[in-house]
Amino acid sequence: QVQLVESGGGLVQAGGSLRLSCAASARTFSSYYMGWFRQAPGKEREFVAAISWGGGRTTYADSVKGRFTVSRDNTKNTVYLQMNSLKPEDPAVYSCAARSEVTSSIRDAAEYNYWGQGTQVPVSS
After folding, report:
1. What is the full DSSP assignment across 42-57?
2. 74-78 contacts: CB < 8 A, separation 24 or more?
3. DSSP one-letter code for 20
4. Nearest 5°: phi and psi at 14?
5. Which residues contact residue 61 at a Cβ distance below 8 angstroms, ignoring those fewer than 6 apart?
6. Rounded average pLDDT over 26-48
7. What angle do CA 115, 117, 120 make, to 5 degrees?
8. Least trusted range by pLDDT, from 60-69, 71-80, 98-107
9. At 58, is the pLDDT very low, low, confident or very high (cuts 50, 70, 90)?
């Protein structure tokens, strides 16, 4: 069992920045591939970003490339999502997720076994 708790969400000015954190209770955090997903009202969950076990490889949705950065610190059992240049389409509930092994696509939510409760990211004008 892996418990994930997101934090860092909140009101931010359009065009501004925000860093989300996801703390994991896993005994061996480095054994998990980590992903970030988001879900806006009326829409299905969509992939945002992912990072490999040791942090050496990152993957991003086209909509956030160049603006968002995913990173992890395995000594702290934490994965981060740095969001810059926030746009009106970015507000959503952001969730982190964990998977122990990649079997198909790291962009597919079905590949992830554990999920946090999510943190809300509204954008203010």
Report:
1. TS--EEEEEE-TTS--
2. 74/29, 74/30, 76/23, 77/23, 77/24, 77/25, 77/26, 77/29, 78/21, 78/22, 78/23, 78/24
3. E
4. -55, 135
5. 46, 47, 48, 49, 107
6. 94
7. 125
8. 98-107
9. very high
How far is the first Cα of the chain from the last one, in angstroms, to the nearest whole number? 40
Rounded Cα distance between 117 and 5, Å, is 7
Angle at 38 between CA 35 and CA 43, to 5 degrees: 140
pLDDT at 123: 63
Residue whose C-alpha is closest to residue 75's, from 5, 6, 24: 24
Q: Is 64 exposed, middle or buried (0-12, 13-18, 19+ CB in 10 A)?
A: buried
pLDDT given for residue 103 in this prediction = 78
Length of the chain, in residues? 125
Q: Is 55 in contact with 71 (CB distance < 8 Å)?
A: yes
